[in-house]
Design goal:
- By secondary structure, this protein is an alpha/beta fold.
- It has two domains: about 160 residues, Rossmann fold (3-Layer(aba) Sandwich); about 290 residues, pyruvate-formate lyase- activating enzyme (Alpha-Beta Horseshoe).
- The chain contains 21 helices and 17 strands.
- The chain has a seven-stranded mixed beta sheet, with helices on both faces.
- Helix 4 links the parallel strand 4 and strand 5.
- The longest helix is centred in the last third of the chain and has 16 residues.
- The structure holds cobalamin and iron/sulfur cluster.
- Cobalamin binds next to helix 1, strand 4, strand 5, helix 5 and helix 7.
- The site of iron/sulfur cluster has 11 residues, from helix 9.
Length: about 475
């Protein structure tokens, strides 16, 4: 029988402040496509708990039925235990199954993770494609794992950390994600608040990394501190494929910093005039300074389907922006929101509370500021020290972290106090941020009957989501 890989997307808690959604297992589809292309002799299978509605007993049955040689999972910090549970389940079914995890969390603390989760055989650090292919070859007896760059594992009770691996030079060489492995689930992928329950939501990669250095962000470090992008031609081809062949109608770009200045013109040239741009909604994440400096490019991107952007506004306080090493100014945020409003792009602003010198008063100022600017949606988060960030290093060294349960690292649970606020007071302040957002009946009514379709969809969906109740329960 051919060597078998089973990728498992574990059952996950969802992020309730964004309402109901069901994402495709993007990371696993990207990796699976690469393995299929490079190792045609290997069987590649997928068990997608979100898409297929699998609970833990069903995950165990899937592993038993497929009889894989290797089981693989991916997740962020808040999913770390779920990924480990996939490995544990695989070992229970058959101790000979090789278990492999990867992603931002496990890459940042591979040794600690291997020690905490003895059911995990290998951790693939950083970019996964080439390391995974080499690992599969090693497990098929063609190579020694000790010679595979980018790999960590236990040997004789000690953590072995092989040297890192250079990044893939040209992202255009990557295959399209393997959506054929989840064909039956595609109609289940949705993001109700953003596009409605019946619109097919897919996630696609336009690039990797970022050349900024924000202290709370895992991205730049994970991708070697540089920014690589697929070419506009490749991005247009992938967008067309996801729409025409897979059925995607709402596409979420994974890039954490879209970077208008460097590529919007090229993407516009590659996309405009294509019929898909009439019927597609695209979402991406941007920096406020980039938008503020490039209003014409924002308008052009709107013309080819970018209806919704997420801005990293973060704070109303220059000192906090500086502490985050964000490199933007508070004034950029106002200008950015004006530019987006003028271009009729739906604006979702992300804010962070709980930085070290935050007080009741500074957070009240943030609430006033964020509401006065009038983005269509404010999402407030608690500063979270994700492993792999400078914020984590400092918080750990100084003993600020009061909750080390990874499942709570979702930016909704406060895990640290500030200089003057206890952890639970930070949690209370987060609740008050959302209370200001959703507890305003005048604003809610305007939203529910807005002429803007996206705003209407969002308010109607969020009205039934009990976000406030769930946040109050955390206090
Ligand atoms: C799309 C997305 C979402 C989607 C859901 C996607 C999904 N399928 O679950 C939504 C909007 C729902 C979401 C929610 C959240 N997200 Co999110 N999300 C992303 C985003 C933008 C893209 C993820 C992606 O598909 N990347 C593309 C793939 C190919 O990259 P990759 O996963 O890193 O995989 C590569 C390597 O890391 C490696 N690899 C990874 N896993 C594995 C596994 C194996 C076995 C191997 C061999 C290799 C390997 O190989 C891959 C190819 O090279 C990332 C940022 C980013 N650019 O990655 C944030 C990101 C992952 N999210 C983040 C966070 C914090 C969250 C939330 C907690 C809160 C929030 N602010 O949204 C919630 C949690 C939801 C939950 N309960 O799971 C953080 C995670 C930080 C951390 N360490 O935990 C990120 C990194 C954003 C950031 N800059 O901080 N997210
Ligand atoms: S927060 Fe955004 S701009 Fe800052 S390093 Fe991360 S991806 Fe780059």
């Amino acid at each position: 029988m051919a060597y078998r890989l089973l990728f498992v997307e574990p059952p996950k808690r969802y992020w309730f402040v964004m309402g109901d959604y069901n994402p495709p297992p993007t990371t696993l589809l990207v990796l699976a496509a690469y393995v299929e292309r490079e190792l045609s002799e290997v069987d590649v299978l997928m068990a997608d708990s979100q898409g297929e509605g699998l609970d833990w007993p069903a995950v165990e049955r899937a592993i038993r039925d497929h009889q894989p040689d290797m089981v693989l999972a991916s997740g962020y910090t808040c999913n770390a235990y779920a990924c480990a549970r996939v490995a544990e389940t695989a070992k229970r079914v058959d101790p000979d199954i090789v278990t492999v995890l990867g992603g931002q969390h496990f890459s940042a603390i591979p040794g600690e993770s291997l020690e905490a989760f003895p059911e995990v055989d290998f951790i693939v650090r950083g970019e996964g494609e080439e390391t995974l292919v080499d690992l599969v070859r090693a497990c098929m007896g063609r190579r020694d794992p000790a010679t595979v760059p980018g790999l960590s594992f236990m040997h004789d009770g000690r953590v072995v950390t092989n040297p890192g691996r250079p990044l893939i030079e040209d992202l255009d060489t990557l295959p399209f994600p393997a959506y054929h492995l989840v064909e039956d689930s595609v109609s289940n992928y949705h993001f109700t608040m953003m596009a409605g329950r019946d619109t097919v939501y897919l996630v696609f990669e336009g690039g990797r990394g970022c050349d900024h250095r924000c202290s709370f962000c895992t991205q730049w470090n994970h991708w070697g501190g540089c920014w690589r992008t697929k070419s506009p031609k490749r991005i247009a081809a992938e967008v067309e494929h996801l729409h025409d062949d897979v059925g995607g109608q709402f596409l979420w770009l994974t890039d954490d910093n879209f970077n208008y200045a460097h590529r919007a013109e090229g993407i516009y040239e590659a996309l405009h005039g294509r019929p898909i741009t009439q019927d597609l909604m695209m979402f991406w994440q941007v920096r406020t300074d980039d938008v503020a400096a490039n209003p014409d490019l924002v308008a052009k991107m709107r013309a080819v389907g970018n209806y919704w952007v997420l801005i990293g506004a973060e704070s109303a306080d220059p000192e906090s922006l500086e502490a985050f090493a964000k490199g933007t100014r508070v004034s950029d945020t106002g200008r950015c929101i004006d530019v987006l409003r003028e271009s009729d792009v739906f604006t979702q602003a992300m804010w962070v509370i709980g930085s070290r010198h935050d007080t009741h008063e500074s957070i009240e100022r943030l609430r006033d500021f964020s509401q006065s600017l009038g983005p269509k949606l404010n999402i407030y988060t608690a500063l979270t020290p994700f492993p792999g960030t400078r914020c984590y290093q400092e918080a750990k060294a100084k003993g600020w972290i009061e909750n080390d349960n990874w499942a709570d690292y979702d930016m909704v649970h406060a895990v640290m106090p500030t200089e003057t606020l206890a952890r639970n007071e930070v949690q209370g302040e987060l609740y008050r941020c959302y209370k200001r957002q959703y507890g305003n009946w005048g604003r809610n009514l305007v939203g529910l009957f807005s002429r803007n379709r996206l705003e209407r969809t969002m308010y109607r969906h969020m009205a039934g989501q009990s976000v406030l109740r769930r946040l109050r329960e955390l206090v």
